[in-house]
Design a protein that fits this description.
Layout (H helix, E strand, L loop, with lengths): L13 E4 L2 E4 L4 H5 L25 H4 L4 E3 H4 L4 H17 L2 E5 L5 H15 L3 H5 L10 E5 L13 E8 L11 H26 L6 H6 L6 E8 L11 E4 L5 E6 L5 E5 L2 E4 L7 E5 L1 H6 L9 E3 L7 E8 L11 H7 L10 H9 L15
Parallel strand pairs: 3-4
Antiparallel strand pairs: 1-2, 4-12, 5-6, 6-7, 7-14, 8-13, 9-12, 9-14, 10-11, 10-13
């Protein structure tokens, strides 16, 4: 069994940059906003990527499916059935969709974004109190993705907080606990309704995913991302290409764009829209659906004009759940089972303890 304990107690490296010193415990925000940088430090410079500034044409970007959440809850069978079909098509063809009319107050969404900014604006000494050493620490502040194994670091600081099955919160900002608890609860309710619709779109009972994932004890992680302004965005990556380990991730972006997803070999910009979530399929939903739903590579790019904040809520199985393809899908579709079981804890710890590498983690369980 793969364990995150291999990184317990490991030192946080302090790395030299050109003309300044990068302290991994402080994060990249301090360095980016120090006024000392005229170029990107070599510790954060990736080889030039000709696709990094390729935001794709608006015609491609506009094809990202939109799911109206209110239709999934409609009493009229014909309305709900169409919404479920649309959900299935979005999961199979894109692995991403926008979610509108979800019922989360815009004021609560803005409040959560403001709190994330307040946290990253705290003095470095306050943020460092939450520097994590293990993958499943209840509260974990850090930079890049995993600086203990990476050779080049991402232009990103993060705060990860486990909010279910037990709720945790940093002590400051003072309002974080109350607002994060309400926001997480609201979004979890949305995710559970989406899982029901997805189950039905696969021809399964509406409660199938809930039972297979053991969602009553499912892992919900609140992830606040801060991407500072970057002097050479063409050489930096906010977050390198990857797929998510869980079932569904519900993302809120501020008004600054930076999320890109890979669709038919092209990087497609997902522009932020007011009062709208972006939802993406994770590896364990691909596993359960036997490859019908697709987890999709995505990444974050940065810019030289302004900082960007995004907030993701990742919804996965219980840590002790071992998810495998629904037998009905293999039997009815005539397709061989494509993935083997692995305890979710083991899968998550392996992905989080290594470098991001597209969908490489899924190869662990691919038959």
């Amino acid at each position: 069994m793969v364990s995150g304990k291999a990184i317990e107690g490991a030192p946080v490296p302090a790395l030299r940059t050109s003309g300044s010193r990068f302290d991994g415990a402080k994060g990249i925000k301090e360095l980016a906003e120090s006024g000392l940088l005229t170029s990107i430090p070599p510790t954060h410079a990736f080889p030039p990527d000709p696709t990094a500034s390729n935001l794709s044409s608006s015609s491609i970007e506009e094809q990202l499916p939109t799911i109206d959440f209110s239709f999934l809850q409609a009493k009229e069978a014909v309305v709900r059935s169409k919404a479920i079909r649309d959900l299935g098509e979005a999961g199979a063809e894109w692995g991403f969709f926008r979610l509108v009319n979800h019922g989360v107050p815009e004021s609560l969404m803005k409040g959560m974004l403001d709190l994330a900014k307040d946290f990253f604006d705290l003095p470095a000494e306050e943020r460092k109190k939450y520097t994590g050493k293990q993958v499943l620490d209840p509260i974990r502040y850090g930079t890049s993705f995993n600086i203990l194994v990476e050779e080049v670091f991402c232009w990103r600081d993060f705060l990860k907080v486990i909010v279910h099955p037990s709720f945790h919160s940093p002590e400051i900002p003072a309002a974080f606990r109350e607002i994060a608890a309400e926001y997480s609860k609201r979004v979890q309710q949305i995710a559970r309704e989406l899982f029901k619709g997805i189950s039905e779109s696969l021809g399964l009972q509406s409660c199938y995913i809930e039972k297979a994932f053991k969602l009553e004890e499912g892992l919900q992680i609140l992830i606040c991302n801060y991407y500072p302004r970057c002097p050479q965005p063409e050489l930096a990556m906010g977050l390198t290409p990857h797929s998510d380990h869980g079932g569904l991730t519900v993302l809120m972006q501020d008004e600054v764009g930076g999320l890109q997803l890979k669709h038919k070999g092209n990087w497609v910009l997902v522009r932020p829209l007011p009062n709208t979530f972006v939802v993406n399929v994770g590896d364990h939903l691909e596993i359960l659906s036997n490859g019908i739903y697709k987890s999709v590579e995505h990444r974050a790019v940065v810019n030289d004009a302004t900082a960007r904040i995004s907030i993701a809520l990742a919804h996965g199985p219980s840590l002790d759940a071992s998810v495998s393809p629904a037998t009905q899908l293999a039997e009815n579709g005539g397709q061989a089972v494509a993935y083997r079981e692995m305890p979710y804890r083991e899968y998550l710890e392996f992905q989080q303890s290594h470098r991001l590498g597209g969908k490489s983690c899924l190869n662990l369980v691919r038959l």
